[in-house]
């Protein structure tokens, strides 16, 4: 089991370091927390976003980079670590500087253009090639593709099939790539860096334009965009546009101003599942800075005239899809992690490890549906193991299952363990919290839930977070129109709510939580009614603990935020307050 310095000790320490982000319980930028990553290059392929990055070594005081990494996501919040598919050893002719590259798919293969230092020479651009977006990659040429001492390659294939490679610092170059993507026609051409094309750099007559490095070229609605790092140092992100792939370029302004604790930045832009996403790096993790950077992402919308709005660093976008817990999920698929690291697994792929008491991994927007009955994980431990706690909403949230992990005889001696689950329903943020004794406890390779076999699997009380009282049917009456209110929790049938596959909250078998007279206004009383399938009887269990009425879009609310026995429940505009949050009990 690999033993290197633990980058993250606790979420509290991370969040204090993210002072440039809004205060949140669990921020999701930077999107990788267990290593430092830099120079993002996103690519959309077959319904996933693949993210190619560099890796800043821990404690670096210069650009110490020996390998490249790959991550991927189907929802923009949960990212799978695919490990190290290419490193300096891939290129026998290189000896240092695994710097900013870019990957593109063509001809059924994946081409990764990277700058490295040639043995006995300067910076050159090599090409790795693979049959898979996650590698492994091999040297496509056995020599540099192009070599003029400059860096930061980016490939682009135009609508007519002509491919281009752009690169450069301090200049901006391009060549026309041939269809094989590993050779080119003609000679490298330098793009004129005019102030009209790339903006004016104040106070530097020797370098008058803003362009610095890291070109990212793409086409949208017939217009060519070149987004790049500008005006070192510290850098910001600017962009220019052109009617063609080689210009003439017109300067358009700033995309992301200088901010964060890294003096460099590096752009990448893709469209995915109906949204546009801007990738960059900063120094926001503990120990982070200009040589220990971390990749982050923002969602944005183009202005009506096609211009890019000015962006700022935030806690990151929300999910664009759900995660299915009933298929095998890799343990290294993580929205946020505290304390864990990743390493190659003997069974293939990656696993998480170096896990100590109190560490956790978070997975966002898990679609449990009507409920899960059990949980299985593939685990290993060279010590006495530990416990995997399954919690909803936070690392200290409601426990829906506990799996005991025994010692297995080795860190790569894998076996499966299972445990029952109760109360996991709806769309939830899932926290896998690891507990046990001192030292390293266990490794996890993958996990998977089993769906519940009957409605009884998801029957429970609903406990108000703000009041610490339960959702109760007044007097235990069963007549339609009976009020629903808060009362001290007990074991009676009038507090036992069942979540159904049709998104109902049932009680007494055939009565449903309902909005009185199908009302849609704030203050509408919540009652029980004979279940009939209408929208006013359907509810969405949200990840923040709120319960939203499908018909009105309003949330289940303790009237006036009162906490006393007998407080009526009503519908009210969802506001995230505790009188609208409910736990299973």
Automatic annotation (TrEMBL):
Keyword list, A-Z: Carbohydrate metabolism, Glycosidase, Hydrolase, Polysaccharide degradation, Signal, Xylan degradation
Residue ranges annotated for the CBM6 domain, each copy included: 327-450
Residue positions of the active site: 39, 213
The organism's place on the tree of life at top rank: Bacteria
GO BP terms: xylan catabolic process
Site features described as Important for catalytic activity, responsible for pKa modulation of the active site Glu and correct orientation of both the proton donor and substrate, chain residue numbers: 152
InterPro entries: CBM6 (IPR005084), Cellulose-bd_IV (IPR006584), Galactose-bd-like_sf (IPR008979), Glyco_hydro_43 (IPR006710), Glyco_hydro_beta-prop_sf (IPR023296), Glycosyl_Hydrlase_43_Enz (IPR052176), Ricin_B-like_lectins (IPR035992), Ricin_B_lectin (IPR000772)
Keyword Signal attributed: yes
Family indicated by similarity: Belongs to the glycosyl hydrolase 43 family.
Protein name: Glycoside hydrolase
Organism annotation: Actinophytocola xanthii
């Amino acid at each position: 089991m690999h033993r290197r310095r633990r980058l993250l000790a606790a979420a509290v320490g991370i969040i204090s370091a993210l002072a440039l982000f809004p205060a949140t319980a669990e921020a999701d930028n930077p999107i990788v927390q267990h290593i430092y990553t830099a120079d993002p290059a996103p690519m959309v392929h077959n319904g996933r976003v693949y993210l190619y990055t560099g890796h800043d070594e821990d404690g670096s005081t210069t650009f110490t980079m020996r390998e490249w990494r790959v991550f991927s996501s189907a929802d923009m919040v949960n990212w799978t670590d695919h490990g190290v598919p290419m490193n300096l050893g891939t290129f026998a002719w290189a000896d240092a500087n695994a710097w900013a590259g870019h990957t593109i798919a063509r001809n059924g293969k994946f081409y990764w253009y990277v700058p490295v230092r040639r043995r006995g020479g300067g910076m050159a651009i090599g090409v790795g090639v693979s049959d898979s977006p996650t590698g492994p990659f091999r040297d496509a040429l056995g020599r540099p593709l192009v070599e003029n001492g400059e860096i930061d390659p980016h490939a682009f294939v135009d609508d007519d099939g002509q491919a281009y490679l752009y690169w450069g610092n301090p200049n901006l170059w391009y060549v026309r790539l041939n269809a094989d993507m590993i050779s080119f026609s003609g000679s490298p051409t330098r793009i004129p860096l005019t102030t009209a094309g790339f903006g004016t750099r104040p106070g530097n007559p020797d370098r008058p334009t803003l362009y610095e490095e890291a070109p990212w070229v793409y086409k949208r609605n017939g217009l060519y965009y070149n987004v790049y790092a500008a005006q070192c140092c510290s850098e910001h992100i600017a962009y220019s546009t052109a009617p063609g792939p080689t210009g003439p370029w017109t300067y358009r302004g700033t995309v992301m101003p200088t901010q964060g604790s890294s003096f460099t930045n590096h752009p990448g832009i893709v469209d995915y599942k109906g949204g546009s996403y801007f990738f960059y790096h900063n120094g926001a993790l503990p120990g982070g800075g200009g040589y220990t950077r971390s990749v982050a992402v923002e969602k944005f919308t183009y202005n009506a005239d096609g211009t890019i709005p000015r962006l700022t660093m935030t806690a990151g976008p929300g999910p664009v899809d759900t995660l299915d817990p009933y298929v095998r999920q890799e343990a290294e698929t993580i929205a946020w992690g505290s304390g864990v690291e990743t390493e190659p697994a003997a069974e293939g792929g990656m696993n998480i490890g170096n896990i100590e008491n109190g560490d956790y991994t978070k997975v966002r927007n898990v679609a449990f549906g009507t409920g899960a009955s059990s949980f299985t994980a593939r685990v290993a431990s060279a010590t006495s193991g530990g416990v995997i706690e399954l919690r909803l909403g936070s690392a200290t949230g409601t426990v829906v299952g506990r799996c005991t992990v025994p010692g297995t005889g080795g860190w790569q001696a894998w076996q499966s363990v299972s445990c029952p689950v109760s109360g996991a329903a709806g769309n939830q943020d899932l926290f896998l919290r690891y507990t046990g004794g001192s030292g390293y406890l266990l490794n996890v390779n993958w996990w998977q839930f089993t769906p519940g076999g009957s409605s009884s699997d998801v029957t429970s009380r609903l406990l108000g977070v703000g009041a610490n009282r339960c959702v109760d049917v007044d007097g235990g009456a069963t007549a339609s129109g009976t009020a629903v209110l808060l009362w001290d929790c007990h074991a009676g049938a009038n507090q036992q709510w069942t979540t159904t596959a049709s998104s109902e909250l049932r009680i007494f078998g055939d009565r449903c939580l309902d909005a009185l007279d199908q009302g849609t206004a704030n203050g509408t009383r919540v009652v029980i009614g004979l279940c009939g399938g209408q929208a006013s009887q359907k509810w969405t269990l949200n990840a923040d603990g709120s319960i939203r009425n499908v018909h009105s879009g309003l949330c289940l609310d303790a009237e006036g935020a009162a906490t006393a026995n007998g407080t009526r429940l009503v519908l009210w505009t969802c506001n995230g307050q505790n009188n609208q949050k409910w736990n299973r009990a």
